[in-house]
Structure formats: structure tokens, C-alpha cells
Amino acid sequence: MAQESYSAGCYEAMISTQLLISGVIFGLSIGSIYFLLAIGLSLCFGLMRIISLDQLLYYSLGAYITYSINLASGSMWLGVLAGTAFAGLASFAVERLIFRRIYSREPTFSMITSFGILIGGIGIIKYFWGVVPRPVEVPTLLQVTIFGTEVPVYRLIVVAIAAVVYVGIWLFLHRTIVGKAIRAAIEDVEHVEGLGINVSRLFTITFIIAGALSGLAGGLHAPLIMVDPSMGLETLAFVFMVVIIGGLGSIKGTLISALIIGQVVSLGSIIYAPMAQMAPFVIMLLVLLIKPTGLYGSTVLKR
Amino acid sequence: MSREILSVRGLNAAYGEAKVLFDIDMSVATGQIVACVGRNGAGKTTLLKSIAGFLKPTSGSVIADNTPLTGKKSYDIAKFGIKYIPQDKKVFFDLTVRENLELGSYATKDYNWDRVLGFFPKLQLLMGRKAGYLSGGERQMLMIARAILGSPKVLLIDEPTEGLAPGIVTQLRETFRELARSTALVIVEQNLPLVCAIADKVYAVRDGRIVAELVGPEEISVAACERYL
Question: Is A183 an 8 Å CB contact of chain B?
């Protein structure tokens, strides 16, 4: 009897350890998606002082292009590449046609405009792909064992891609002259122009990078969810929280914040499901109370 | 033989409905140091910003080296060689001294830092330091160093000695004299002894108008300038 009870205890402990490990991996992968999506929003606000909610449209477009290319070619990775490129192109078009005309307006104006673009874009998605949620096949069903827990390799690939993107963005911003100009312009646009640098070109480059990364996020997320027209809207609140907690314009802050929110959502749903929705808001509130600029937000931002 | 490098004619500027500059005429020759003096709020900074393209003039013209610049974007004007150094000693805090200079080089394609560091050798020792950690004097040096990359035609410098230690002011005075050999300087300055020591011409600005023009050591004196403060 005692031995049976001991075995049951061990089994429960093993189950909870497995739950915890798979929860952490799930949190890392969802945090990685949030990071890829939030980085564009953060850079756009940091540099152009615009609240670019249309990034969520590029995220949806990335997912839908991944779905269609995967269906046509059988290669999800080709779909992700195409989705990333298409999202970058779409963001370039939107920047040229719309945002270029409203950079000098208040951020709230850009928020309303970008929300309009998002809603309009969702309408276009519904026109082309319909309203029925679409599944995207996971490119690999392989699993690896980590501390006795089977973990899907695809989720680890997502984490690895986000890590590569982080390093790539860091190198771009710190090792290239255009990246340094973007960092300087995040501090003060006027002074960068005063040196003779065409800031509007920096805006375009940043917007394309932001849109492409949002598309990449959508493409990578597609096999983990059902692709549907309102997927951008469903992610909106979390991405917003990631940007605010991390600090506007900070890549490092966005990464840390995305990982925190990913874990809170994932582990929160294991501990007590409603907590997954509520806890990120509590964290955001606490961060804003203690550090209103966010974890790594600069206090010298100026337009 | 000096020639006119910057000419401002009938310049008017406004912030929204509030008119700030009224029919400003100004002339700067190569190798000249021109100072603008006047009370706070007289319109001196607005004048520099209007020339540099940060504020679009409502009327009038700005011509540099026979090229009309009125209405051009600030980065085009800077690229042309009219550089504005604002009074807030604003360097890019998160970037190192080296990165700040690199941005100056990127815009002008002038990667020869020897001349620049010749003016400010101290910057050589601070290359890896984030600009946000520099002292006020070091920031001013960095701003000037960044701006003189590409050998600009005219430097517009707003209150360069404000809040700086006397030793730094003396150093800057010598630097301005050196710079004037290749670049015309327009300096907004409240430090009248400095103005009198370096300026070839002084414009007195009051209520958005130029009310006096003093030329040469016979006319430029602290007492003469003080009348307009």
C-alpha cells in the first residue's frame, strides 16, 4: 500500500515536471513569436513615433501566404520565406502611400490610421481566403527528449530563429552605419537630419524590416495555430504589452519582455487558466508603476 | 580675397500664427566670424534654424555659395555644407564618441578624422565612451567635431559656450579662430567678451529684427554690444 502510494507520488511529480518543461518550451516559442511581432511595433514607435497596429496585418499576411505556398508547393519553409518577403513589400507600400503623409501628426493619429489599415486588410484577407480558419502543416513532427519530456522540434526551431533574428538585428543596429543612424534617430530625429542624413529613408528601411519580421512571425506561428482573418486582432493586446513592458524602441527590452509574457501565458495556463489572460496586464501595470518608460525604455527619446 | 558665402534677404519666419522674424538681411563672407547678439527670445535661434531649414521661412531668401536654399529640407542644406550646431549640446547619448563621429562621416563621406581630432585631441581618448557620459565641454567638442567633418561652408553655432568652464571657453575661442580659416562661422552668443575677441561682424537682434550691424574692431566692443542686450 505504502509502495503504491509512493509510486503514485513519483508519477505525479514526473507528470508535473513534464508539464513544467513543456510549459517552459511552449512559453519560449510563443515568446519568440511575440518578440518577432513586437520588435517592429517597438522600432516604429521608437523611430517614427507612430503606433503601427498594421504590423498585425503583416503578421496575418505572413501566415496566409505561408498557408497558400505550403498548399501549392508542400514546403512550409518556402511559405515562410514568401510570407516574410510579401509582408515586407506590403509594409513598404503602406509606408510610401500612407505613413509618409502622417509622420508629423500626433501618435494617436497614426494609431487610428494603422487600425484602419488593419481592419481594411482583414477585409481583403477575407475576400481572398474566406473566413474559415485554415490549418498549416507542421514542417517536422520530430520530438526531442529534454529531462524526460518529449518536446516538439518545431517549437525549438522557432526559438532558434528568434534568437538568430535578435542577433541579426543587434548586429545591424550596432555594426552598420545605417543601424547606428537609426539608433541616433530614435534619440533625436532632428539632430540626425542636421548632420545631412535623409531620415525619411531610415523610416522606410525600418518600416520594411518591421513588416518583414511581422510576416515572419505570422509564418512561423501558422503551424501552431489555425490561420484565421482575426488572428492579428487576437494577438494585439499581448504584443502591445510586450512593447510597453520592454520599453519603446528597445530591442533588448522587447526580447526580455516577450520571453516574460510568453512564460506568463504558458505557465499561467497550466497553473490556473484565467491567469494566462490576466497576469500579463498585472505585470504591465507593475512595470509602468515602477518604471514608466518600460524595462529598457530610454528617457532621452525626442522627436 | 573674401567673397559672400551666405546671403539672407528679407527673411520672415513664424511659429504658426506667431511671427518671429521680420525682414532679416544678413551677409557672411568666407573666413568671417559673424556673431548674433540680443536678449533671450529676440529671435536669434529662430534665425539660425530658418537658415538651416529646420523652420520654413514664410518669405525671403537664403542663398549660400550662389545656390538658393530657401524651402529645402534640413538634411539637404546640411549636405550642401550649412551645418547647424544647436545650443542643447545634444549628442547621441546611447552612441559612443566614435559612433557619433561615424554618423558625421556617413553624411559627408569624409572619413578623414585627423583634422577634426587635431582640433579636439581629447576626443581621441574618449572614442569608446558613450556620449551620454561626456561633460558639457566634451559634448560641445564632439558636436563641433561631428559638424566640421566634410569641411562645411558655413557653421551656424547656437550659444556654444553656455554653461561651460572658462578654460573650455578659451579653448573654443582658439578653435573658432582656427576653423574660420576654412569655414565661415555664424555664432549666437551671449558671452560678449568672446564675441568681441573673435567676431568680424556683429548683428544685434531685437524683437525679430536686425537693429544694428557692427563691423570691425572699431565698432565691435562690449559696450556697443551691451546696448542691444
Answer: yes
Residue among B219, B94, B121, B160 at smallest CA distance from A188: B94
Domain boundaries, chain A: 24-233
Grid cell, residue A204, equals 522606410
Which residues of A are less than 8 Å from B104 in CB distance? 195
A174-223 confidence digits (pLDDT tens): 999 999 999 999 888 889 999 999 999 999 999 999 999 999 999 999 99
Grid cell 533574428 is found at A165
Q: Which helix (H) or strand (E) holds B62?
A: strand B59-64
Exposure pattern of A7-17 as b/e (b: 16+ CB <10 Å)? Answer: eeeeeeeeeee
Q: Which three cell numbers stand for residue A65?
A: 501566404
State how far the Cα of B26 lies from the Cα of B215, in Å rounded to an integer: 12
Contact between residue A45 and residue A206 where contact means Cβ atoms under 8 Å apart? no
Residues from chain A that touch B103, judged by Cβ atoms under 8 A, are 177, 180-181, 184, 192, 195, 197
pTM for the model stands at 0.85
Question: Residue A93 is which amino acid?
Answer: A
Count of domains forming chain B: 1
Q: Give the Cα separation of A181 and A202 in Å (integer).
A: 8
In A, minimum Cα distance to B87 occurs at A191
Instruction: Tell me whether residues A300 and B93 touch, CB distance under 8 A.
Output: yes
Angle separating helix axes A2-48 and A251-271, nearest 10 degrees: 150
**Domain residue limits at B117:** 4-226
Distance from CA of B217 to the nearest CA of A (A): 33
Q: Which residues touch A216 (CB under 8 Å, ≥6 apart)?
A: A36, A62, A80, A83, A84, A87, A161, A165
Which of A192, A193, A203 best probes binding to B when mutated, by most B CB atoms within 10 angstroms? Answer: A193
Q: What is the dihedral of CA A283, A284, A289, A293, to 10 degrees?
A: 130
- What is the grid cell recorded at A101? 503623409
For residue A139, the 8-state DSSP code is S
Quick: pLDDT tens for B121-135: 999 999 999 999 999
CA distance A138 to chain B (A): 42
**How many residues appear in chain A?**
303
User: Positive or negative, the Cα torsion across B33, B37, B41, B43?
Assistant: negative
